Each structure stands twice: as structure tokens, then as C-alpha cells.
Amino acid sequence: MIEPQGKIWMDGSFVNWADAQVHVMTHSLHYGLGAFEGIRCYKGKSGSAIFRLQEHVDRLFDSAHIAMMQMPFEKKQVAEAIVETVRVNRLEACYIRPLVYIGHGSMGVYPGDNPIKLAIAAWTWGSYLGDDALANGMRARVSSFTRHHVNVSMTRGKISGYYVNSILAKREAKADGYDEAILLDTEGYVSEGTGENIFIVRKGQIKTTPLTSILDGITRSSIIDLARERRIPLVEERFTRDDMYIADEVFVTGTAAELTPVREIDNRKIGSGKPGPITQALQKAYFSIVRGEDPSHEAWLTRI
User: Fold this and answer.
1) 166-179, pLDDT tens digit by residue?
2) Active-site residue numbers?
């Protein structure tokens, strides 16, 4: 459960958490056209910092552009509002959710001149898939649901309504006793999780799904950079579900999921059934950076 915080930023000003409400006729509530970001702020030895803030703001604006929603604020204003939301709520570590949505006015699938609204909330949130999964790996299943086709849902946008697909896949996986779902694309290749990008490791080489039917994950990009810095061979290439079964290691990445190992898929043990050495090395490097312990990646942090 989300613990209510003090304030939420809405359209340029802060309102009390309990008063941050929208009208029931809000267009995005009925038709699902909105855009959002998930951002994390971490507490480190030298204070708190937001991870890759500018990249998240850029992607939020890209998503709004794809959805033909004219942002009512400039990028700099949004970045400053995100930082201020963390400060106002006196949060040392938190998850941050900016949401762009279409307000009420016209009804029907064409929103007309309905206003474009922006809200930013922040709250304390621990490990998305659980501390045990982060340390020891999670169990996943390949979903019966297929991920988006690139000409049905424009996959570069982090669009609210697209996540109905994720909700259905996640519910199916949880009902069957798994932690997470892995979705295939419309041609049967591995796409992504319900909110994560997927990596496999085999014979010392990392492979991850190319930017075809998947969201361009910011954590994904960071892990690719970290692997290449360590001269770990990495390719962005399609792979199949049985490539995952015979992989030495599998892990997923995302702002919420961070870097979580996968120990089992479809009742098949992955590798030794424990997080492998490459997974552990990249996870350690990632957490060192987000906690401000690696000065070589200070540019990825926005200090609070």
C-alpha cells in the first residue's frame, strides 16, 4: 500500500495529498490516453539524489508528443517541480510519478480542446518485486498475452492505456503462483516483462531485446553502458523463450524493478537457480551509482 505523503504537485502548485483529485469525467480516465514516468530518488552516504532525471523528463515529453498532448510546461519547469516535490515531502528515498493526462470537457474518443494536465506525486516505495527477489531471484512465466505490435500501440511512448496489457499479464502470472510475467512479441520472440526489460547471459555474452516492440528503458540503457564499460560482450538481438530456458543467467531491469535476477521461468531452473556472477556484478555497480558511491557516474544523479 502507498503511504500518503504531504503534498502532490498539480498544474504548477502543491495541494494536500487528500485533495489531489480529478473530475470523474476526466477524458484520460475514460479512454486511457495519458503519459507517465517512474523515477527513483535514492539515499546515499552524501545525501539523496534522483537517478537520471533529465532522461526521464525527456521521455515524458517524447511520450506526450507521440500521444499528441501538448505539454503545458517546459522541461526545465517539470524537472524543477520533480525535485521540489521530493523536497517538500522531506523524502530521502522515494519513487516519483509524473502523470500527463487529458482533463474533462469534450467526451468521445476525440478529446477536442480538453486541457492537458500534469501531476507529480512521490512516495516511499521499496523493492518492487520484493527484497527476496532482488537478492535471490524471482520466478516468472511466459504470458499467454502478447506484447504490443508497433503499429497498434506506438511502443516508444510510456502511455497509460498500454499498461492494461501488463495488468492482465501480471494478474495471470500471480494467479499461477509466479512473481512476474514475460511477454512475447507478435512474432513470438521475447519482448519484455509487465514493466521491465529483459537480459539473458549465455557463455559470457549478454543478449537483450532490441528496440523493436519494447519501451526504451532508462535502466536498460544504463545497464548496457555498465556492461560495455566492463567489456562484457553484449548484443541487442532477438531471442526465443527457450533461449531463456538454457541461459546461464537471466535478469530484468526497470526503474521500479531496478536490476532483479530471474531464477526460474516456466518451472525451469535458470542456470544454477541463483543469481549469476554477471548479474551480481552489474547489480552491485548499479546500486553503487544510484547511492552516490561511484563518482565516475555523478552526471547520472541530480542531488536534492
Assistant:
1) 999 999 999 999 99
2) 158
